[in-house]
Structures are given as C-alpha cells and as structure tokens.
Amino acid sequence: MQKRLNVNAENTSKANRKCANILRDYLQEKEQDDDFEKFDCVRLNETLCHFYVDLRKGDGERYKASSLESIRHGINRYLKAPPHSKDELTKNHRESDKELVSGVMPESPGSVYCPVASYENYIRRLHPSNDRLWQKPLDSFSTEADVWYCNMPLGEKTKYIYVRTQ
C-alpha cells in the first residue's frame, strides 16, 4: 500500500514539474525571466494571465479547457510544494491557519456578546413543556417575558436556514 502511495505521489510530482516546465518554456520563448518561482503575486498573476491566453500545443493548436485546467492545477501544486512554498514567517500572522479556526468561542463575562450568557438566556426562554433545543419563536413577545418560544419544535428546513453558512 505504501509503495502504491509513493508511486502516485511521484507521478503527481512529475506531472507538476512538467506543467512548471511548460510555463518556463513559454517565458523563455517570450524572452522573459523564467525564474517564476521568485515572482511576487502581482507579477505571477499577470504572467499567468498572458500564459493561459497564449498557450498552444506543439502543433500550434489550442489546448482544450480541461487541459488548461490540469496545467493550472499542476503549476499551483508545484508552487505550493517545498521548496517553492512561501515560509509561514512571510505571512502577516505568526499562527498557523488551524490555530485561527479552533471552533472554540471563549466566554466574555460582562459582554453583551458573551456566547455563554447568550446560550444561557436562550435556554431560559425556551418553552418549558418542550424538551427540544430548537423551538419555533413566538410571533411576538416582550424581552421581559419568561418564554419566547412556542411549544413546537422547529422544522428541519427552517433550522437549515438559521444554521447554514454563507
């Protein structure tokens, strides 16, 4: 199994290098600097825009859209792989992306935006005769009222509207 994984990785790396060499050959043909690994984002962007428009096969024919997409993905993987990938220290932040998205919301005592206080207030306002966490809100209620929800669970489609991500 491990040998099989290595073969696929080797073939992918080979395909990525081939895609990078297609770009390098294009830059040499246009008499431009072919060290695109060191280009800044703006220059690389401009270069790739011209590259995809100008790119032709050996016989002068245009590549199919799917082939261009494969070349694009190959160049992307090539640039993201070591040693070409940018070091974390060149980013504006020092944390890794995994640390930024931990899924934990810390308590903020005294804040109106405290997630723990909001949750406790929500639980306190649920209809006491219904044991469901998601309940249908009353059509109208006072913020001082003890109960803000009907004795009816919220439907699956309605829940989806509330919890979907943009």
Summarize the structure.
This protein has six helices and two strands, in the order H-H-H-H-H-E-E-H. The protein is mainly alpha-helical.
Outline: elongated
Order of helices and strands: HHHHHEEH
Strand order of the largest sheet: 1-2
Q: Mind telling me the C-alpha Rg? A: 28 Å
Beta-strand percent range? under 5%
Distance linking N and C termini: 39 Å
Describe the structure.
By secondary structure, the protein is mainly α. It contains 6 helices and 2 strands, in the order H-H-H-H-H-E-E-H. The chain has a two-stranded antiparallel ribbon with strand order 1-2. Helix 1 packs across helix 3 (65-80). The longest helix has 28 residues, at 2-29. The two termini are 39 Å apart. InterPro entries: MAVS (IPR052787).
Please supply descriptive tags for the structure shown above.
166 residues, mainly alpha, two-stranded antiparallel sheet, 6 helices
What's the helix and strand layout?
Elements: H1 2-29, H2 41-54, H3 65-80, H4 97-100, H5 115-125, E1 135-137, E2 149-153, H6 156-163
Antiparallel strand pairs: 1-2
